[in-house]
Amino acid sequence: MVRLVVSLLFAIFLLIFASQNMHEIVVRFVFGEPVEMPMILAVAGAFVCGFALAIFTILVRSGDKKGADEFDY
Q1: The domain containing residue 25 runs over which residues?
Q2: How many structural domains are present in the chain?
Q3: What is the pTM of this model?
Q4: Distance between CA 69 and CA 49 in Å, rounded?
Q5: pLDDT tens digits for 29-62?
Q6: C-alpha to C-alpha distances, 32 to 29, 41, 70, nearest whole angstrom
Q7: CA–CA separation, 13 and 36 (whole Å)
Q8: CB of 21 closer than 8 Å to CB of 13
Q9: Do the Cβ atoms of 68 and 56 come closer than 8 Å?
């Protein structure tokens, strides 16, 4: 029950945060034309990219440990 309440409060906080950050910003990537998008999409995209990079790093490091044990002479 506590987990449900905390999840609902977190979801409400995210909705309020998203509604406060809907103004347009210009995002300039290394190549290509600048893109206009709502700020919440830019923040969410940065979060997803950081999360994916962290998961990739964890997977690579855990794979190195398994490989080192198999080929230990």
Answers
A1: 2-70
A2: 1
A3: 0.65
A4: 31
A5: 888 899 999 988 898 899 999 999 999 999 999 8
A6: 7, 19, 45
A7: 25
A8: no
A9: no
